[in-house]
Amino acid sequence: MGNAELAGDDIPKDNPASANINEIKKATMRARDLVREILTFSRRSEKEQKLIHLAPLVQETFGFLRSSLPAMVEMNLNVRTKDDTVKGDLSQVQQVVMNLAMNAAQAMPHGGKLTISLSKAEFGSREDVPAPEVEPGTYVILSVSDTGTGMDKPTRDRIFEPFFTTKEQGAGTGLGLSVVYGIVKSHHVAVTVDSAPGEGSTFRVFLPMAEAPIEAEPQPMETPCGAERVLFVDDEDVIVRVGEGILSRLGYCVTSDTDPESAYKLFSEKPDAFDIVITDQTMPRVTGTALAQKLLALRPDLPIVLLTGYSESVNQESAKSAGIREFLMKPLSKQELAEAVRRALVRKLS
User: Fold this and answer.
1) Is residue 214 a part of any domain in this protein?
2) 188 and 98, same structural domain?
3) Model-level pTM?
């Protein structure tokens, strides 16, 4: 992410490579969201659901899938409705589309046709609904169909069970459809499957249409800059190089160190030589929170930004209680880092 943003800054906007760099940035951001989703799913945390448009999401996912599925799988996208507003978590809904499409491709080992569709349907009474979980109302229907091997009834009855798979040992985990089922249930919606041996399969996800309009997307904010002196600490050389590059281009005077003990020694010699410290959490011998506490013992008013990937030992609340002003999850964008640094410099802990 960092290298793509640095490269994007060096390329004129009218250069054809600029569009490619933007696609890399979009893909890395989506990958970040998916990884965070996996972590959230494993921790059984509740995700905030918002109003989203399904068509752009499905179109974007279709593009990802086109480049990753086997060439002998013919892909078709059929968006048959402009009314596509639903309430959900964007990355989870995308995961549903990807898992269903991957499952469909695996059911066509010798090739076939994969069709992803969006349509609208209204069910006026209980007699009309396609499944017991579906209440009468208006729905956006996400369909994923294939012309693969199909399934008999005993298989259809078990496909959403965790670790159930019809593949050979080692060829699959059996988690793809169970993850779909878990996400569908967390959204309080329904999924159905129509299939028969030799006749392919069609999965349909019924998402209630949202009545409230989607608020306009906020306009991109100007990236805040500064001229303060930054001590940047991370044990990975590549992270240090990218961090230095981003912060320097924002106007900051950056000193970096890959050893937290060396960074502490450097700071202790001249505690007033730095205006802010940005540190990683997981480092050899000394964690970011431990380093922060040692630095704050020397200078209690020191603004500190803590960066971390997945960590069970620290979170926003524990970081704040330790005197750390900003807590950010890796990977982060230039905009996120720039805003966090300015907040840490101008705010004091409440």
Assistant:
1) no
2) yes
3) 0.58
